[in-house]
């Protein structure tokens, strides 16, 4: 099959607008090549001969095409130190801000939701131990949650393959993992015991209250799969689970702008994050 | 004109055809145009790049134009001082006073004509019309 | 090791009683009102309380929670509690109502023909945005019925906008007639051209890529 013609300006914009309205994923002109490649893959996989054919299929969500395209665009894969720039932002800005706002001696609580098989919450733990000089002065509680109880069990067990560790230096692997041979590693017991894993349904109204309030929540690449009503409920849950002034980190290309006006947008050198306002203001 | 010297406009409107219409006109008159679909997205864009002026609709989902403008005017300088043209439909006279109170520099009525869009864009960007 | 783990206590706190929550909707604390709104939204019997609170609520975040709750309940009385607010003088309130209705477009569908005949053009404009979230053929039917008789250029603009995304070929003759009626409105002509090109392109087997 010949490779399809590049999408026209108007086609690209229509696709982006559709994705944004439907999922909250926001791609700009700089991501055009990337988005087009993924779209052509999906066109080829579905046997769509033209942009218009494919777009019609997408709009009617034939065989879950919206989810298929989201999967292709977000690379639905989890590994240690994914989106390192957000971890950088955590230690260079977010934790400082939170400590300024909190009474002395109060601990820091961080939530990774959904946590999948544990790569993200464990990454946060390792990153803090390695990159935050103040780590010894504070109590830090990390919780990982997911709707899928099988992945939670796997996260608690803490076994990982080579792909999951690909971004970690050999030094870090040696320091925090036991090499079991056969390209299998297990994360140290001390880390397994310090991160708590729980089941949660983010889209159930009020379904997350028992988890308490957090200083920072990582919630990457999940809201994009929800419908409008579930997204609203999830955004309100996340708002409730944040301390006033607490921060919410979404996935790369994900934007809160299509989902909820509850949060303030904050720009730091390493990332755009969302903040629960310190106090409720009346408009 | 080299891209770097162009005045930069942020067009904020939920309607894709309205944005396309403004873009078409402004680009023909030598402006660089970026778009946002509502107030929250506009705020994200403004935090990532600088703009010379904003063209802003009132009725938009997630964050309406008036709320956006109030939020913008509470930010630190120079962000807070970016000039904004608010555009809305004729019958919403109450919006005019709300927009002024929220910090709109000008208030125009839809549907916008090319002439008035270009005139106000030139005024706000300090470009001779 | 600075990382700590706190396992939860055995029994979760018991949920608050409904009558307390209803009283909390009037609390001076927006925190308490927010939390009451969210708890009450779990039971559709509370639609009346949520609707009345919405009419008096000034805090935008509490309003958001009330709108979300009503949109999730989706019963005719929940939709009826949201609808009046698309006429609000407050732009934030209109946006909130529109988003809430947009999250439950199927539940609003019965009200749509009447809303598209509303004497207030602003209402007709906003309702076009709800219609665009319905399945394509249904949306096209509603929007074409509106466009055939609509005299207000901004309402036509909103209908054309929605058709440009969800319309099918049955809209093309209606769009062409509309262009004739508004030959002196450059924005509408631009919109109708673009929308017609998109619809034509999508209907052709070879797609919208022109030679």
Structural commentary:
The complex is a heterotrimer of chains A (283), B (129) and C (211). Chain A is an alpha/beta fold and 283 residues long. Helix content of chain A is 40%, strand content 18%. Chain A has ten helices and ten strands. Chain B is α/β, with parallel strands linked by helices. In chain B, strand 1 (8-12), helix 1 and strand 2 form a beta-alpha-beta unit. In chain B, helix 2 runs parallel beside helix 3 (65-73). The mean pLDDT of chain B is 90. In chain C, 51% of the residues are buried. At the A-C interface, helix 1, helix 3, helix 6, strand 2 and helix 9 of A face strand 1, helix 2, helix 4 and helix 13 of C.
> Structural class of the helix and strand makeup of chain A?
alpha/beta
Q: Return residue spans of chain A where pLDDT drops below 50 for at least 5 consecutive residues.
A: none
- The share of residues in helices of chain C is 55-70%
Strand content of chain A: 15-25%
How much helicity do the residues of chain A have? Answer: 40-55%
The separation of the N and C termini of chain C measures 67 Å
| First-residue to last-residue Cα separation of chain A | 57 Å
How would you describe the oligomerization state of the chains in this entry?
Answer: heterotrimer
Name the poorly predicted regions of chain C: 206-211
Characterize the biggest β-sheet of chain C.
none
Task: Using the alpha-carbon principal axes, give the shape of chain C.
Answer: elongated
Beta strands of chain A, count: 10
List the topology elements.
The complex is a heterotrimer of chains A (283), B (129) and C (211).
Chain A: H1 9-23, H2 32-45, H3 51-59, H4 65-74, H5 84-101, E1 108-112, H6 119-131, E2 140-146, H7 149-157, E3 159-161, H8 170-176, E4 177-181, E5 184-187, H9 189-194, E6 195-199, E7 214-219, H10 228-240, E8 242-250, E9 264-267, E10 272-275
Parallel strand pairs in A: 1-2, 1-7, 2-6, 7-8
Antiparallel strand pairs in A: 3-5, 4-5, 8-10, 9-10
Chain B: E1 8-12, H1 16-28, E2 32-36, H2 39-48, E3 53-57, H3 65-73, E4 84-88, H4 93-102, E5 106-109, H5 114-125
Parallel strand pairs in B: 1-2, 1-3, 3-4, 4-5
Helix pairs in contact in B: 2-3, 3-4
Chain C: E1 3-4, H1 18-24, H2 30-40, H3 47-56, H4 60-73, H5 76-82, H6 91-102, H7 105-108, H8 112-116, H9 121-131, H10 136-149, H11 153-166, H12 172-181, H13 186-203
């Amino acid at each position: 099959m010949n490779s399809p013609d590049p999408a026209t300006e108007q086609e690209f914009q229509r696709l982006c607008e559709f994705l944004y309205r439907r999922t909250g994923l926001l791609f700009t002109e700089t991501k055009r090549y990337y988005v087009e490649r993924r779209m052509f893959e999906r066109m080829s996989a579905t046997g769509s001969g033209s942009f218009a054919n494919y777009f019609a299929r997408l709009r009617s969500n034939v065989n879950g095409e919206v989810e298929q395209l989201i999967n292709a665009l977000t690379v639905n894969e989890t590994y240690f130190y994914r989106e390192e720039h957000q971890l950088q932002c955590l230690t260079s800005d977010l934790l400082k801000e939170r400590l300024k706002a909190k009474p002395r001696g109060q601990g820091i609580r961080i939530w990774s939701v959904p946590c999948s098989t544990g790569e993200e919450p464990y990454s946060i733990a390792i990153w803090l131990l390695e990159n935050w000089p103040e780590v010894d002065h504070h109590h830090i509680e990390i919780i990982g949650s997911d709707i899928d109880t099988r992945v939670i069990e796997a996260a608690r067990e803490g076994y990982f393959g080579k792909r999951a560790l690909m971004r970690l230096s050999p030094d870090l692997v040696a320091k925090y993992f036991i090499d079991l041979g056969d390209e299998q590693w297990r994360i140290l017991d001390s880390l397994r015991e310090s991160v708590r894993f729980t089941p949660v349904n983010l889209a159930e109204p009020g379904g997350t209250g028992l988890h308490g309030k957090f200083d920072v929540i990582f919630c990457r690449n999940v809201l994009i799969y929800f419908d409008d009503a579930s997204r609203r409920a999830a955004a309100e849950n996340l708002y409730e689970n944040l301390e006033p002034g607490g921060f919410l980190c979404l996935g790369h290309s994900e934007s809160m702008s299509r989902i909820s006006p509850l949060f303030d947008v904050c720009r730091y050198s390493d990332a755009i994050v969302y903040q629960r306002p310190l106090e409720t203001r009346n408009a | 004109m080299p891209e770097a010297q162009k005045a930069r406009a942020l067009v904020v409107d939920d309607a894709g055809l309205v944005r396309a219409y403004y873009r078409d006109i402004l680009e023909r008159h030598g402006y660089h145009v970026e778009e946002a679909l509502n107030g929250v997205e506009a705020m994200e864009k403004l935090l990532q790049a600088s703009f010379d002026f904003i063209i802003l609709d009132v009725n938009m989902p997630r964050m309406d134009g008036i709320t956006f403008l109030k939020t913008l005017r509470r930010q630190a300088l120079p962000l807070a001082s970016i000039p904004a043209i608010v555009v809305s439909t004729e019958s919403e006279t109450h919006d005019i006073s709300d927009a002024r109170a929220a910090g709109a520099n000008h208030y125009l009525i839809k549907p916008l004509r090319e002439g008035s869009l270009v005139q106000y864009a030139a005024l706000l960007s300090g470009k001779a019309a | 090791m600075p990382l700590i783990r706190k396992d939860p206590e055995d029994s979760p706190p018991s949920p608050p009683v409904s009558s307390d929550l209803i009283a909390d909707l009037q609390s001076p604390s927006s925190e308490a009102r927010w939390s009451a709104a969210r708890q009450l939204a779990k039971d559709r019997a509370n639609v009346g309380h949520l609707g009345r609170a919405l009419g008096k609520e000034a805090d935008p975040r509490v309003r958001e929670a009330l709108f979300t709750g009503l949109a999730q309940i989706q019963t005719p009385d929940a939709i009826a509690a949201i609808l009046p607010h698309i006429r609000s003088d407050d732009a934030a309130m209109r946006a909130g109502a529109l988003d809430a209705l947009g999250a439950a477009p199927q539940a609003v569908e019965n009200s749509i023909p009447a809303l598209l005949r509303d004497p207030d053009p602003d209402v007709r404009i906003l309702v076009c945005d709800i219609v665009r979230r319905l399945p394509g053929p249904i949306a096209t039917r509603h929007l074409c019925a509106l466009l055939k008789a609509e005299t207000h250029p901004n309402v036509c603009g909103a209908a054309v906008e929605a058709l440009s995304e969800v319309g099918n070929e049955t809209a093309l003759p209606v769009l062409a007639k509309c262009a004739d009626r508004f030959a002196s409105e450059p924005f509408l002509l631009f919109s109708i051209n673009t929308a017609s090109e998109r619809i034509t392109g999508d209907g052709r087997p070879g797609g919208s890529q022109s030679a």
